[in-house]
Amino acid sequence: MSTGVLRFFSSPLVLAAGVGLLFFCIAPATINSSIPNDINTGYYASYGRNLIRYAPAQTHVMNFDAVGPGTPEALFSPSRYFKYYIDHPMLLTWLAAVALKLGAGSLLAARSVSILSSAGLVALLGMWISRRLGTYAALVGMMAMLMTRVFWIHGVVLNFEPLTAFLVFAALSFFTDGFFGSAGRSSIVLGCLFWFLAMLADWPAYFLAVPVAWYFARERRWLAMVGSLLIPVWLYMGVMTYYGINTGDPWLAVHFLIRTFQSEIRVHKSSWTEVAGAVFWNGGYNFGAMPAFAIAGTFVMCRRGRTESNDRLFMLLALGCVGILNILLFRQWAHDHTFWSYYFLPAIGLGAAEVASKLKFDGLNWQNALFTFGIILGFLNLIPVPNNLQFGVPFRVELPWHDDVDLLARSELPYYGQGYIARWYLDRPLIDAGMVISGGLPCRPERSFFVMRDDEWEQSSSMMKELFAPVKAFHWMVLPIAAGMKSTGLSCEEALKAVSRS
User: Fold this and answer.
1) Read out DSSP for 315-352?
2) Among 476, 479, 480, CA closest to 419
3) CA–CA separation, 164 vs 202, rounded Å?
4) What is the residue-averaged pLDDT of the chain?
């Protein structure tokens, strides 16, 4: 194969296009229980769908928690109280809404936000490295990122990490051109634009203020340093004030910080030792030993001196800073999920490229060197390989979710957790069982199912477990009211009272 052909197929744009095409080929058209955290795809896709099916006066262009293809209905009927999901900014669901509109409402269209972001991250990383270290070092960097599990696992899940990582890397690309190159102020302005978009995507992008402010402090540009620290503060206040105005809490910006500190930052649900253990094992599963490249790359850059590798060292340290602060400040997320690890992907790729640049790819034996390096990448990715802590969630969709049935519940809680899936597939409210018991709503024995979460079922009385035959779906316990009546002779209302008393 000629060198020209090899150069073509190792081009960052060509490789990124191939990655995107492969993602579209392998991405499931439904929520897949074998993909860790794929329940989030249905959750955020449902918010995107709501943005295009309901009027802006109802959604306020926010994550509107309602169901129903026509008039929006609250999750828990007959309540008219609608909720807004405010734990994250809005850009992901805005883009999901656009994708769903263009893709006729298919789940694959919603996944395209993460797919295109993942492919875009490959292209940006490759082009950025290629301009500084050459084509083949860039190829090694892209290979390192592509050989990680987390890239392929989360690349098809509609979640915040691929989009935020892409925008953060884009911002840093322009910042490094402006800080260390000849691009000047125009590149810094473009960097600020992508940073603004990244902060509209998710909170970890706000941590970029630390390395940017550090650079300005070193350059003694004090006004720019203060501005880089205030920009995320102003944006946070703007986003949360907008949320607060539309949810009736004008002090939401303060209340949200307090709640986040209590639930995510302060150690109470798990110790720092448990967090470190979860980070280590999940990181080992997603990366193997490949994070060593980020450390080795930093060492190589430092040995090369400031003038030769200043921009690359700043990029790698900035990426590492965002990832580490995300773990430290959102401790509970880091303990419970593998999401945190995605932000280290470009740092691993950049470190691998830096180490690879020490090899001579421009001689007669560059193919052998590249092949050898690929073998090393593969082994480092496989060692160690602990058990994945984020198991897929099995669920069933053959139950009569789309028939004319009443799903009765004590509260809206079954719609949370694994019920994220139900927002997409079920798309209708749960009925308050208390309203049926009191006679406010009719009880249809042959078409009524009582729904509760697994933990509620486990805590139920033995009488109730004997009364009903549970069917497991979406991690709910589904209790057919009619079956309870036939086995005991109870009326529909009496069966529901038995459930409510347990």
Assistant:
1) HHHHHHHHHHHHHHHTHHHHHH-SGGGGGGHHHHHHHH
2) 476
3) 6
4) 78
